[in-house]
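Design request, tokens follow.
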């Protein structure tokens, strides 16, 4: 932002150069017409243009030079004298200087008074000389009188104007000084607070103490090397101090983990960029303070995160901080390696030019390293931390982390995210990005636990997660239930990619089963929903992936099914003979007391339907029938157990206004009150999903028949 002095100097120089240009063109025209000689034009340019260009040179060296205005006034005066001495009339130039003084020097009455007196004296001398040589007398002195009157008017008016505004100007200057002092104090306090926060963040990680301060100074050094202004350099220094503020949301157990991070831990660590951006986005004291936090892990080739920005799409500030961050990582000791030597660091930086790093920023840092200028930077001296404030803030953060630790942790058995933390992460990611959601559900898991023991069930769970992790693809794995895992693949954007990943999963699982007898019965069903043209919420995607999983189960398990519009629009039709008979019975009026329904259940159903239709509500009838694959034999006890699972799934899914009852030993009826076609479809999907979670042996098949009785009522 330009200072007040800078603006005045800029206007004065520009105005002077404009006048010189106008006069040059005017005199050049006179030379071409023969009214003046070329030598006159050369002398004029030497007297007027050279002082102007000299002041321009001084302005370029120091735009805020306060004395520059006096040099300019002297130059104006030289031009004024030359014009007076050589011009055919001096009246035109008698008010050039006063008018310019009025416009740009109104707040310096002494200067205007001095130049006015000098101008008046010069004009008196010239008039006296003309009287002396006889070119002027009382008869033709009208021009001289007007000239002196104009001088008195212009300079007198300028002087009075400056005196009137002088007091206001002084008050404004005083006020601006107070404001600048307050702003300086506020900025100083802000920087102290920022430094305290930065030191507290660094204190969370035993191996990155001082990291933020060092990155701040390295960023400032690179910015200065790139020719940014002092104000821009200071802004980048402050912004870089908080580039890692998002690590407040990362547990110490992840930050200080000595070994390699798991995929889930790495995904959690990556979220510190978006978390930092959200924390800082509403702070206006330092423009763009959230940019460094959010984008410092973007790569120039587009392979970074969180948004995968490419090249110039990445904010310039973030590109500078990114290379400073990488440099500090390479030159700091880590638990898994020692710091790199300068030659190796330069080599790594050169290899990353145009791929990982912005070329301009990278070359600037390389220059600083090769010339040894970065070694003179002392980050510790520029970021003096307030130990008391840092200690207090550290305690607050530690206390908060202890409260949150139970919520943002991993499943104890599989090390996948638990449902709460996994769902939270997926929701946050899907707010800004798209991805493929898959649900992996172990087939006949209850049966395995009951017949082979829970230890074998645990082995199956661990093996499933292991196979998912081998897929890579930038995934987030969350255990959503006892035997179900929801996985968000951020890199999958098409149906073809989703199919390829699903097939790869089953290939991995088949290979592992062949090499381990304990895994011979492992079977997994996979539901898939890939990104569509319209962005959807996590809740919507979860519902769709549940439906896809249900259809995979219906196909016998150990396979995948992709949700699509055909699946979503699918409707069931009535083919069951029992259903047809039931409908034909309840379509007619209730018989008199001498007749009866075939069995009490039919009468109950009739009464319920009548009650709903009398209210002019829609009524749908669902009939679930349990059968077996051809050639399969199931005991009566097993059949009853299946029916209990089915009834339990229904009662857990239907609403209070709906009803269900056992129709036969293998059939369950559901009556839905005032629910449209889509609602009926969603509810049946939920019932079947719940059923297959409890019972998924392949020999059992559940058929579903539906009827809209509200359409058949007269």
């Amino acid at each position: 932002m330009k200072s007040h002095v800078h603006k005045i100097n800029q206007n004065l120089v520009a105005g002077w150069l404009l006048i010189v240009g106008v006069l040059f063109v005017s005199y050049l025209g006179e030379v071409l017409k023969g009214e003046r000689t070329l030598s006159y034009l050369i002398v004029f340019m030497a007297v007027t243009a050279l002082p102007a260009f000299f002041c321009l040179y001084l302005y370029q060296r120091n735009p805020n030079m306060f004395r520059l205005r006096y040099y300019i006034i002297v130059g104006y005066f030289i031009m004024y004298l030359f014009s007076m001495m050589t011009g055919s009339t001096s009246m035109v130039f008698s008010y050039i200087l006063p008018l310019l003084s009025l416009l740009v020097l109104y707040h310096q009455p002494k200067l205007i008074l001095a130049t006015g007196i000098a101008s008046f004296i010069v004009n008196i001398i010239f008039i006296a000389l003309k009287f002396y040589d006889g070119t002027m007398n009382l008869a033709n002195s009208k021009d001289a009188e007007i000239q002196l009157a104009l001088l008195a008017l212009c300079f007198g008016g300028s002087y009075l104007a400056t005196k009137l505004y002088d007091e206001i100007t002084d008050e404004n200057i005083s006020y601006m000084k107070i404001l600048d002092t307050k702003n300086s104090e506020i900025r100083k306090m802000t920087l102290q607070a920022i430094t305290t926060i930065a030191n507290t963040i660094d204190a969370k990680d035993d191996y990155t103490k001082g990291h933020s301060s060092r990155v701040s100074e390295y960023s400032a050094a690179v910015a200065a090397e790139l020719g940014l202004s002092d104000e821009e350099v200071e802004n980048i220094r402050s912004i870089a101090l908080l580039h890692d503020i998002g690590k407040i949301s990362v547990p110490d157990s992840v930050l200080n983990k000595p070994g390699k991070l798991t995929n889930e831990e790495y995904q959690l660590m990556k979220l510190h960029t978006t978390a930092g951006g959200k924390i800082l986005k509403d702070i206006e004291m330092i423009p763009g303070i959230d940019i460094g936090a959010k984008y410092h892990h973007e790569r120039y080739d587009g392979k970074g995160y969180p948004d995968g920005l490419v090249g110039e799409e990445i904010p310039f500030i973030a590109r500078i901080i990114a290379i400073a961050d990488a440099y500090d990582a390479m030159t700091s000791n880590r638990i898994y390696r020692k710091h790199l030597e300068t030659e190796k660091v330069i080599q790594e930086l050169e290899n990353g030019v145009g791929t990982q790093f912005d070329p301009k920023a990278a070359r600037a840092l390389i220059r600083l390293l090769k010339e040894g200028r970065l070694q003179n930077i002392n980050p510790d001296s520029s970021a003096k931390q307030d130990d008391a404030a840092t200690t207090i803030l550290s305690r607050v953060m530690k206390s908060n982390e202890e409260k949150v630790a139970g919520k943002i942790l991993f499943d104890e058995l599989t090390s996948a995210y638990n449902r709460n933390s996994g769902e939270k992460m997926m929701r946050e990611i899907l707010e800004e990005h798209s991805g493929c959601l898959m649900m992996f559900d172990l087939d006949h898991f209850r049966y395995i636990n009951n017949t082979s023991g829970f230890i074998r069930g645990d082995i199956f769970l661990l093996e499933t997660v292991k196979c998912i992790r081998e897929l890579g693809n930038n995934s987030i794995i969350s255990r959503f239930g006892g035997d179900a895992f929801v996985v968000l693949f951020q890199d999958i954007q098409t149906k073809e990619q989703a199919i390829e990943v699903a097939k790869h999963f089953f290939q991995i699982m088949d290979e592992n089963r062949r090499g381990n007898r304990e895994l011979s019965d492992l079977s997994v069903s996979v539901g898939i929903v890939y990104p569509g043209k319209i962005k959807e919420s996590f809740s919507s995607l979860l519902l769709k992936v549940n439906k896809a999983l249900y259809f995979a189960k219906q196909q016998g398990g150990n396979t995948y099914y992709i949700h699509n519009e055909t699946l979503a629009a699918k409707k069931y039709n009535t083919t069951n003979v029992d259903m047809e008979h039931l409908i034909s019975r309840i379509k007619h009026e209730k018989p008199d007391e001498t007749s009866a329904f075939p069995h009490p259940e039919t009468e109950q159903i009739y009464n319920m339907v009548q009650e709903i239709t009398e209210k002019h509500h829609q009524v749908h009838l669902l009939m679930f029938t349990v059968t077996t694959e051809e050639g399969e034999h199931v005991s009566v006890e097993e059949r009853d157990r299946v029916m209990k699972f089915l009834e339990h799934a229904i009662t857990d899914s239907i609403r209070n206004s709906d009803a269900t009852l056992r129709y036969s030993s293998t059939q369950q009826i559901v009556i839905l009150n005032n629910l449209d076609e889509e609602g009926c479809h969603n509810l049946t999907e939920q019932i079947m999903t719940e059923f297959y979670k409890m019972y998924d042996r392949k020999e059992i098949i559940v058929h579903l028949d539906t009827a809209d009785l509200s359409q058949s009522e007269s």
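Comment from the thread starter after seeing the answer: thanks! The mean pLDDT is 78.
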